[in-house]
Amino acid sequence: MTRRLAEVAKKVGVSEATVSRVLNGKPGVSDATREAVLTALDVLGYERPTQLRGDRARLVGLVLPELQNPIFPAFAEVVGGALAQQGFTSVLCTRTVGGVSEADYVDLLLQQQVSGVVFAGGLYAQADASHGHYELLHGRKLPTVLVNAAVERLDFPQVSCDDVVAAEMALAHLRALGHERVGMVLGPRDHMPSRRKLETFLAEGGDPELVEHTMFSLEGGHAAAARLVRRGVTGVICASDLLALGTVRAARRAGLTVPGDISVIGFDDSALMNCTEPPLTTVRQPIDAMGRAAVDLLVAQIDKAVVPADELLFEPELVVRASTARARAA
């Protein structure tokens, strides 16, 4: 108990006596200090006293699939900042292979009495994944927002980049440069944003024989693109910047140049894509606007407003750099 008082007091910058008054429900403490002490308890992993568990903590879970892809730390920064402006503290939960699962994180966040959860790049976007933990959140009526294309049966507000527009932009850019054999490197077959991009590609006359599915990684992009290179593509549209960098590597391993022999387009416009060699042409997700919208939707739910389980679509932007060029004459 003494250790807990000392740690919480140090975290908040108050005396141990003040912390003790809060934990015992005694008067003489301002509302702001009381809230700061309770939040510190949550952040440090201590359980609140039974009599203080009625109200949810001003904590919000932010569940991400990884931090290796620069787009996710960027999103976490936007959401964390927007939450702080609203008086909430974000709790970052990152899945690791063989480590804590998304469902385990949901259980942990529920135990911590969080006010809500924002998911980005989660299992909700994979049709064949288990979705029981989302159903648990829905049953508990915990405010929740999903970022980017969930499966249809989940009944939460969503904030998404428009995959249809993204695919149209990328394909139109390559065709305007004279590319006829355009391929696609996408995520897994059950990944909803990849499905949307593929449907658009095919609807616009893309060749289904020039489509490859893989895991979202540099290595996955390399392996998938190597197969497309052997089929003679001159342009490749990728579902992430990491996949695009893997595609550039595959082209070079095959003795080809980018963009001289093959043009490559990524998706996200994550950090440092203007510093690669060559700088990457990509379709930019409006991360700032999407992150702020996700927080606004979440806080509205926390404030008991009626928030429809609709999907807000944000339009992407084609950022043209040096990884695309005119197709060579046959």
Give a brief rundown of this model.
By secondary structure, this protein is an alpha/beta fold. It has 11 helices and 12 strands.
Description:
With 330 residues, this protein is of the alpha/beta class. The chain folds into three domains: 2-52, 434 Repressor (Amino-terminal Domain) (Orthogonal Bundle); 59-161 and 286-316, Response regulator (Rossmann fold, 3-Layer(aba) Sandwich), CATH 3.40.50.2300; 163-285, Rossmann fold (3-Layer(aba) Sandwich). Helices cover 41% and strands 16% of the residues. The strands form two sheets. The protein has a six-stranded parallel beta sheet, with helices on both faces. The chain has a six-stranded mixed beta sheet with strand order 7-6-8-9-10-12, sandwiched between helices. It is elongated.
Helix and strand layout, with pairings?
Layout: H1 2-12, H2 16-23, H3 31-44, E1 59-64, H4 71-85, E2 89-94, H5 102-111, E3 116-120, H6 132-140, E4 144-147, E5 158-161, H7 163-176, E6 182-186, H8 192-203, E7 211-213, H9 218-230, E8 235-238, H10 241-253, E9 263-268, E10 281-284, H11 287-302, E11 311-314, E12 317-319
Parallel strand pairs: 1-2, 1-3, 3-4, 4-5, 5-11, 6-7, 6-8, 8-9, 9-10
Antiparallel strand pairs: 10-12
Helix pairs in contact: 1-2, 1-3, 4-11, 5-6, 7-8, 9-10
Tally of distinct domains: 3
Helix content: 40-55%
Q: Considering the protein shown, what is the CATH homologous superfamily of the largest domain?
A: Response regulator
CATH topology of the largest domain: Rossmann fold
Mind telling me the CATH class of the largest domain?
A: Alpha Beta
Q: What global shape is seen? A: elongated
Please tell me the overall pLDDT: 92
How many strands? Answer: 12
Task: Using the 3D structure, state the CATH architecture of the largest domain.
Answer: 3-Layer(aba) Sandwich
Strand portion: 15-25%
* SS-based class: alpha/beta
State Rg.
23 Å
Biggest sheet statistics: 6 strands, parallel
- The N- to C-terminal Cα distance equals 78 Å
Strand order of the largest sheet: 2-1-3-4-5-11
- The ordered string of helix (H) and strand (E) elements is HHHEHEHEHEEHEHEHEHEEHEE
- Low-pLDDT segments: none
Number of helices: 11
